[in-house]
Amino acid sequence: MDQGEFAHICDTENAYYPFASKSEWELANWLASGALAQKEIDTNLHLQHTKDFPVSFNTAKDLCTHIESLPEVPCWHFQEIKVGLYQTKDPLILYWCDGLEVVEHLFGNPVFAHCMDMHPYQEFEETVNGVECVYGEFMSADHAWEIQAS
Q1: Is the pTM of this model over 0.85?
Q2: Which of 27, 60, 101, 121 could be stapled to 41 by a disulfide with Cβ–Cβ 3.0 to 4.6 Å?
């Protein structure tokens, strides 16, 4: 997919990128769900309704290219846990993902770029008792300031 062609979408805070909107994503999700063959998808995309309300993909191949351009997300792993000779009614299954992969995904995803605080901050609020510190996110906590100072 030509990144320049979709730069206007990517540069915004569009959570549905590479699709232009939620409705376009919903259409793509339905088309890609396997209900239609690729030829039927192409036929659907050439209907007058689709021409009146254009989408950023024109063929099933374009749709696949959009889907393949989506960033990969950290995968879940699982393993059965056995505790010595103890038997359980149902197997104990531990589901987990690699924490480092999750952090790399979050920091590398432009959708979250404006949601992350990298520096400690303080917020204050005037009350009847005077000015008081307001705590919300981690970076507004005293501990974040202590870590920064050390």
Answers
A1: no
A2: 60
Report d(CA 5, CA 22) in Å as an integer. Answer: 19
| Cα 43 from chain centroid (whole Å) | 30
Q: How confident is the model at residue 3 (pLDDT cuts 50, 70, 90)?
A: very low
- Rounded Cα distance between 31 and 135, Å, is 45
Structure tokens at 73: 């997300």
16-68 pLDDT tens trace: 778 888 888 888 888 888 878 888 888 888 888 878 888 888 888 888 888 88
Residue 132 is encoded by which pair of tokens? 């008081």
d(CA 55, CA 131): 52
Distances (CA, A) of 8 to 4, 5, 13, 34, 134: 8, 8, 10, 30, 37
Task: State the virtual CA torsion across 10, 11, 15, 21 in degrees, nearest 10.
Answer: -70
Q: Return the SS3 of 6.
A: helix
CB 76 within 8 A of CB 95: yes
Residue type for position 110: P
